Amino acid sequence: MVSRKQLSPNALKVLYRLKDAGYDAYLVGGCIRDILLGLEPKDFDVVTNATPEQIKKQFRNCRLIGRRFRLAHIMFGREIIEVATMRGHHSDEEQDEKNKSQASEQGQLLRDNVYGSIDEDAERRDFSINALYYSINDFSIHDFAGGMEAIKNRRIELIGDPETRYREDPVRMLRAVRFATKLDMTIAPATEKPMFQLASLLGNIPAARLFEEMLKLFLNGKAEANFHLLRQYGLFTYLFPALDKLVNKHPDGTEYQLVTQVLKNTDKRINAGKKVTPAYLIAAFLWYPLQSLSNRITAQGETPFNAFNMAMNQILSESAKSLAVPKRFTIGAREIWQLQHRFDKRGGQRAFRLTQQPRFRAAKDFFCLRAQFEPELAELAKWWDNYTEQDAGSQKRMVSDLNKGAKSGGNYRRRRPRKAKSNNAKRHD
Ligand code: ATP
Ligand code: MG
Q1: Where are the domains of the chain?
Q2: How far is the CA of 318 from the centre of ligand 1 (A)?
Q3: Interior angle at CA 174, CA 170 and CA 175, nearest 5
Q4: Residue 75 phi/psi, 5° resolution?
Q5: Is the pTM of this model over 0.85?
Q6: What is the pLDDT of residue 72?
Q7: What percent of the chain has pLDDT over 70?
Q8: Whose CA, among 31, 213, 275, 354, lies 20 to 30 Å from 148?
Q9: Is 330:314 a contact under the CB 8 Å cutoff?
Q10: Interior angle at CA 144, CA 159 and CA 139, nearest 5
Q11: For the CA of 175, the nearest ligand
Q12: Do 254 and 288 contact (CB within 8 A), yes or no?
């Protein structure tokens, strides 16, 4: 049912090398699942009974990685084949003596390096559709958890007792959502039920891991569907609490509409093979929380410019408690935010200078998107759409036309001569 033509030649090389060295080796997880569903696998994961050290001895191009979960990466140029050693069950003895596996008070697995047999390995995987093994010995699929049936019925079902499995690793809740939308499947009732109650366990997951999962949810071409499903299960609030609160307050408000539109556009871009920077997503997800905080600070007597800067810092540090967004992306989000205030300043060289900013494209896209939901920005957004399509000569004309408009009562104000060296504080008035 799986033909070798559908498999990566590098993955086959790894399987044969391990087999020839006397080990068992299988392809497992997403690649087999996706091939059976007629999708193109994203990557190929191998599982074997060789230990990481034994794997390393077989390959020159091998790196051992991970602490919580040790594995081998076999490098073939840009393709990496991940090779894991089969995982087994944990006994209390092993926990105490060897410290190979470790669980927290909530039952969460902190370390998972106890090796085992293939059927044990299958039981430790998350969903039945992810526990299908393709053997290089007989070219057949080994199904230990009813994965074939689940594929046929298009069902996401956890292996074992759902509550225990979510407690071991609450990220499985996010994975259930991601696979349901990606594969167009339904989450089985028993797998769905504990989610509502256990959602808060996501609060115990390191912010760096949640950031990784967030990217997988929103940069895989199913962002909009994931947003709705995450909200339905009460999971979204563990990724973006501030936005979730606003959306709950105004269920069909501007916040909800803008984010939905951003995610629609993101999906369109990703599905057309284009890139979306996480900085843009972060800027969009946190824009209205930023606005609302900034307004509150202004109401307390700060200048809008100061309030906006204070609010940016506060929103980003609040958000960092749930999501560890790497600095390069928060810097990008800040730049996109700051440029939002410069679109109404077009006179002289200002419009041109704005287009020279490194984040201009993203900032302008976001500004025009906001204009779809904030009618007072509509005219300005139209001007910018037009401006960015013109050649330099026409652009100059557009700006000098503004100038004329100003004399007859338009919105362009001539720049007053500068008094002090730095008048930054007035830039956002
Ligand atoms: P994709 O790569 O398309 O997102 P995948 O199923 O390959 O999907 P990975 O995150 O690459 O997902 O994980 C590979 C395999 O490892 C999974 O198919 C599953 O069997 C197992 N796995 C991954 N994460 C977990 C987890 N949190 N709990 C249990 N098993 C897991
Ligand atoms: Mg994978």
Answers
A1: 1-160, 340-408
A2: 30
A3: 100
A4: -100, 125
A5: yes
A6: 96
A7: 89
A8: 213
A9: no
A10: 140
A11: 1
A12: yes
In the three-class reduction of DSSP (H, G, I as helix; E, B as strand; rest coil), residue 127 is classed as: strand
Side chain identity at residue 398, one-letter code: M
Length of the chain: 429
Phi-psi bin for 243: left (phi > 0), alpha (psi -120 to 50), beta?
A: alpha
**Cβ–Cβ < 8 Å for 47, 69:** no
Q: Which is it for the CA torsion 275, 278, 279, 281, positive or negative?
A: positive
Residue with tokens 């009974």: 49
Question: Which backbone phi and psi does 39 adopt, to 5 degrees?
Answer: -105, 160
Give residue 325 CA to ligand 2 midpoint distance, Å: 22
Atom index in ligand 1 nearest the CA of residue 33 equals 6
Residues 396-408 have pLDDT tens digits of: 888 888 767 654 4
Cα dihedral 162, 164, 165, 170, rounded to 10, equals 110
* CB of residue 168 inside a 6 A radius of ligand 1: no
Tokens encoding 33: 């699942």
Centre of ligand 2 from the C-alpha of residue 94, in Å: 29
Closest atom of ligand 1 to 171 CA is 27
45 is catalytic: yes
The class that CATH gives domain 1-160 is alpha beta
